[in-house]
Amino acid sequence: MPTTVMRREDLGPSDQLCDYCTGRCCRYFALPIETPVDRADFENIRWYMMHGEVSVFVDDETWYLMIHNTCDHLGDDHRCGIYDRRPDICRNYSTDSCEFDSDACYDQLFESPRQIEEYADALLGRRKSSSRAALPILETT
Fold first, then answer.
1. Residue whose C-alpha is closest to residue 90's, from 28, 25, 30
2. 79-126, pLDDT tens digit by residue?
3. Contact at 8 Å (CB) between 20 and 97?
4. How far apart are CA 29 and CA 98, in angstroms?
5. How would you classify residue 61: left for phi > 0, otherwise alpha for psi between -120 and 50, otherwise beta?
6. Rounded CA separation 140/3 (Å)
7. Which is nearest to 51 in space by CA: 71, 72, 68, 35?
């Protein structure tokens, strides 16, 4: 597998794009989510992001939940280990619009629960602190 970084326009007519692929599309998946409109929506997104390698991005006004997790069948050579039995979503993916040489630039990117909370505060106003009194600390003797 070549280690030289290639750009799509550098490939010759007989070159196969997949021969230079690093499997970027096999290292995460993203699902559209509803656009948050209130504090509860932002709290749900914050909760999603507390589950490991998760981020949220906005692209063309659509919000996406991105799960950073490599496909179990991606080989060390960046090739699919079950290519002949791969899921339809993989079969339908085309190299015409793949992320081979994309820098993945989003309209907005949130990489931590704190960023979502700060964005919600900026958009909706700062959340009031909890009105519950602090629980007393019980001492054992």
1. 25
2. 999 999 999 999 998 777 777 777 678 899 999 999 999 999 999 998
3. no
4. 13
5. left
6. 62
7. 68
**What are the structure tokens assigned to 11, written together?**
């490939």
How many other CB atoms are found less than 10 A from the CB of residue 54?
Answer: 20
Nearest Cα neighbor of 45 from 26, 58, 60 is 58
Are the CB atoms for 119 and 126 separated by under 8 Å?
no
Global pTM reads 0.77
Which tokens go with 97?
């619009």
What gap in Å lies between CA 71 and CA 28, rounded to an integer?
A: 8
Is the confidence at residue 22, as pLDDT, over 50?
Answer: yes
Helix 39-48 to helix 113-124 angle, to the nearest 10 degrees?
170
Task: Name the token pair of 111.
Answer: 């990489």
Nearest to 123 by CA among 108, 103, 137: 108
C-alpha to C-alpha distance for 55 and 88, rounded to whole angstroms: 25
> Mean pLDDT, to the nearest integer, of 61-69?
97
pLDDT value at residue 89: 92
